[in-house]
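User: As part of a screening pipeline, I want to sanity-check one entry by hand. Below is the sequence and the SMILES for flavin-adenine dinucleotide. Please return the complex as structure tokens so I can compare it with the automated output.
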Amino acid sequence: MSGTTTAGSGSVRTADSPWRNWAGNVTSRPVREVSPASAEELAEAVRRAAEDGLRVKTVGTGHSFTSIAATDGVLIRPGLLTGIRRIDRESMTVTVESGTPLKRLNVALAREGLSLTNMGDIMEQTVAGATSTGTHGTGRDSASIAEQIRELELVTASGELLTCSAKENPEVFAAARIGLGALGVVTAITFAVEPVFLLTAREEPMTFDRVTSEFDALHAENEHFEFYWFPHTDNCNTKRNNRSAGPAAPPGRVSSWVEDELLSNGLFQVACSLGRAVPPVIPSIAKLSSRALSARTYTDIPYKVFTSPRRVRFLEMEYALPREAAVAALRELKAMVERSPLKVSFPVEVRTAPADDIALSTASGRETAYIAVHLYKGTPHRAYFTAVERIMTAHGGRPHWGKVHTRDAAYFSGVYPRFAEFTALRDRLDPDRLFANDYLRRVLGD
Ligand SMILES: Cc1cc2nc3c(=O)[nH]c(=O)nc-3n(C[C@H](O)[C@H](O)[C@H](O)COP(=O)(O)OP(=O)(O)OC[C@H]3O[C@@H](n4cnc5c(N)ncnc54)[C@H](O)[C@@H]3O)c2cc1C
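Assistant: Here is the complex for your manual check:
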């Protein structure tokens, strides 16, 4: 980097190396990078970009697989906008700076005897980055992280600081919780919290036929049900998380290292590299690795049960379907893999979410099941993802905003009943498209 100047306690610098996302499939070359240290400095950076005729994009940790966070204008880095502003035990909420990593939030909440209700598989993302694309875990009654937002503060294109909640600017709140970075720069988020609780996780291998035939019951009987199917096999690994009165019984250090580090990261990395170099061995590896995971039960606080480290780099596509379509779609996916020459080294993940009321949430207004496909970094992905996308779109699927897909605004206006509500708000808050990039032009229109 060269040409660093400081503004307040934040910094502005000309970017001379490209920005790159976690998966390494998206790069961009911003004209300059800004690291504001307060909402006021951020608003100033937004105003200055507008004066210079540059577009603005705030990034989180670059964990999106789409180019949603890419910009050739001003890149706002969140590194100095972190920390907890306040915890309100009466309303049971926490207010955090938008660049706070979920990991830091989870650890700080646990120290205070508090927790979010539900979350995704990892906690590296920033709170604003995660919620802006609708990051979710799995849940029968509890929804995405964005659905747990109670108030949001954002800097709009005019440089104004706007607060929204169910009571204040409710039409902004209805859309901006999953705003795709299109409505403004989020500076702080207030989440609902609850007293920290224990979850008992039951991981258990099951056959594909059993999981798919019992899917409705497994979903109905568990607070958080998910499973992985290993392509080229009839094997699945299921995970059921339910609240527990305790006592805590975390996985032993050896068992945890074997499952979470050796099998899910270390050996898996070796298996993926081998599969990429010699694709015909993938089905044999899949049979071996799907049998290596054994049943286990443990009880721990939520973030330790929901999340785990993901060190093997991959590309991902995920579609949200009406929940009743999930089993049919998954069976079609399995049949497609079996009759094709495709060799797929990564498991397919299936999760659920209840309907929510956020305009562009993938679960907006409908009970949802998610089907996610992954391929090891560097593996040609187009044939597999295209075939999967064809199946998912035939079921009215809505792609995750942060994961690979090829859909555009015309498609979205058909699968999101409230699409026009979002674009009208965008027209009002960002008429000159200060926050636009190529991705937003494709998915929301000009
Ligand atoms: C290993 C891995 C595991 C994952 N697991 C899950 C999972 O379990 N569930 C799931 O749903 N997804 C998952 N994802 C996807 C990931 O959660 C989303 O793509 C998420 O948006 C990434 O957050 P980020 O902080 O990296 O944001 P980025 O990818 O950097 O940015 C995402 C969007 O947020 C916007 N943004 C960031 N900060 C602000 C701000 N302050 N104001 C306004 N807009 C902002 C950006 O402009 C961009 O539009 C996973 C991704 C990876 C790589």
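Points to compare against the pipeline: Residues 22, 57-64, 68-69, 78, 98, 120-122, 125-126, 128-130, 132-133, 135-137, 180-181, 185-186, 310, 400, 402 surround flavin-adenine dinucleotide (CB under 6 Å). Residues 70 and 281 are 36 Å apart (CA to CA).
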